[in-house]
Amino acid sequence: MSESIEALFRPRSVAVVGASRQPGKIGYEILANIVRYGFKGKVYPINPRADRILGLRAYPSLSSVKDSVDLVVVSVPAKYTVDVMDEAGEVGAKAAAVIASGFKEVGNVELERELVKRARKHGIRVLGPNIFGVVYTPSRLNASFGPTNVIPGQIAFITQSGALGIALMGMTIVERIGISAIVSIGNKADIDDSDLLQYFVDDPNTKVILIYLEGVEDGKRFVSIAQEVTRKKPIIVIKAGRTEVGAKAVASHTGSLAGNVVIYSTAFKQAGILQARTVEEAFDWARAISYLPEYKGGPLVVVTNGGGAGVLATDTLAESGVRLKAPPKSLVQEVRNFLPSFASLGNPIDVTGMISNEGYVRALVAALKNPDVGAVLGIYCQTAVTDPTVIASMLIKEVKFMGGLPKPLVLTLIGGEECYWAITKLNANGIPAYSMPEKAASVMAAIINYERSRNAVCKRLEELKAIYH
């Protein structure tokens, strides 16, 4: 990966051109986020009318900074950004995050081209323009005007939408979803999705890549790179512009061409990309994948204490291409010893609403430990004879005793306030849990479908390699 892309995420120094002394201004909020999030490198506010901002010495121009600067965040009106690139070149900048709007998205194509041309003259890669910034939690870098306290984790989120991206930053904090990176790419005048995929595929802090995508310029390159990435890590895409009216809205938003939805869906399938239908679904999938061990094949077993909820989950799985098979005989023989005589031992395994806290957890653990089981979907409906918070605590203790989850486990706990707190506790301990059976089933289907699509991509690439070599 190029040194320039690396400078976006691991800069030794950052300059904010257009840093403001006034709270509420974008130039102030970006600088404040960098300082408050705990960036350890050097920070240079650039403002010709200020001596100090947020306790830092301010400089009248970028060229007046005598040290080298790795990353330049540009928060000035569009017409000044081209000249800033020349100054950035003087201080040895490797990357520039251009916040300003007023380029291709409003028809100002020539200015955007000149911005990139000037940057490339100095060896600078440009993120944007028309973005809200970049976050990389391992570096404690929050060079954005979104929320400050992003929670560290293993999901890299790339978004072409600014306002939606900022809103989703806030959502990840409320939902306690851990993030490795948040990258606003806006108009993608230079750095695009493909460049970022190439970075994150080798990033040890990223386990899954999530993209809000409106369109791509070089589809062949995107698919080619995505195929290599999905061999190692899942890519989840939320594709905007799935309808004719949506495609028109995309064009007016960032100047991108949304393209034919069938073409995109086919390309995603070829690349092994998981396509989510909604933002909520995408983050549900990403969080679970970031928590769980790799699925290595084998049958999925559903354990439920509610027959109806089990049927709903089965329907969702089938609609996603995952059909349940009979559970392994070895598991059936084991659970028969402690389940009620009227329990259903098919798949789903219905332990019935009469099961105790201990009995339900014991059934889940039996499935987790069984070597013939590939993954486990646990469905719990709150009853008068059980307590979801107790079940959560018992299960967490069992998983810790096992040394962590040996295979993917996804849970849904359906009920009242106690279920909410149980779900919160499970997620906080790395066990993905959801409030509805359809959501949990959708997550499990995504995990299984990624393994299938990755195997298909690997097989296809090996066949092509054999043909051409």
Question: Strands across the major sheet, in which order?
Answer: 9-8-11-10-12-13-14
Kindly report the name of the CATH homologous superfamily of the largest domain: Succinyl-CoA synthetase domains
Which runs of at least 5 residues are low in confidence (pLDDT < 50)? 252-258
What distance separates the N and C termini?
Answer: 26 Å
Describe this structure in words.
This protein has two domains: 287 residues, Rossmann fold (3-Layer(aba) Sandwich), CATH 3.40.50.261; 156 residues, Succinyl-CoA synthetase domains (Rossmann fold, 3-Layer(aba) Sandwich), CATH 3.40.50.261. The strands form four sheets. A seven-stranded mixed β-sheet has the order 9-8-11-10-12-13-14, sandwiched between helices. It has a six-stranded mixed β-sheet with strand order 16-17-15-18-19-20, sandwiched between helices. The longest helix has 32 residues. About 1% of the residues have low confidence. The radius of gyration is 25 Å and the shape is elongated. It contains 16 helices and 20 strands. With 469 residues, the protein is of the alpha/beta class.
